[in-house]
């Protein structure tokens, strides 16, 4: 039986993916605000509009959480390989929707090409 060992991500990859994903969420949020007047800055928001805007906020928080977890595991001498692998897989899973984005950094194309979307 052959076991494939996948190298952990580099710190630079983690930071690049977090920055890339956060920028995509921001772009999407800005596009929503342009298309739906009630979501625009300064507009009075209904409960539904506020809920819609919480979705990208939650995604941004999740990206930040995975980035922090990964950096801690990579920088800590006794980092846990299982936590590192799971956090990296989860962060990639959050980002699979952008795997074909033209601004995706080249060193992230391969990890995202093989990533599986997160499942409930």
What's the short version?
The chain is mainly α. It contains four helices and no strands.
Mind explaining what this structure looks like?
This protein is mostly helical and 120 residues long. Helix content is 65%, strand content 0%. It has helices at residues 11-35, 47-75, 81-95, 106-114. Helix 1 (11-35) packs antiparallel against helix 2 and helix 1 (11-35) packs parallel to helix 3. It is elongated, with a radius of gyration of 17 Å.
SSE string, helices as H and strands as E = HHHH
> What structural class is derived from the secondary structure elements?
mainly alpha
SS element count, helices: 4
Total number of β-strand segments? 0
Secondary structure: helix percent: 55-70%
Largest sheet: none
- What do the pLDDT scores average to? 91
Low-confidence stretches: 1-5
Beta-strand percentage range: under 5%
Overall 3D form: elongated
How large, in whole angstroms, is the Cα Rg? 17 Å
N-to-C CA distance: 31 Å
Give keywords.
single chain, 120 residues, mainly alpha, elongated, disordered N terminus
Strand-helix topology:
Layout: H1 11-35, H2 47-75, H3 81-95, H4 106-114
Helix pairs in contact: 1-2, 1-3, 2-3
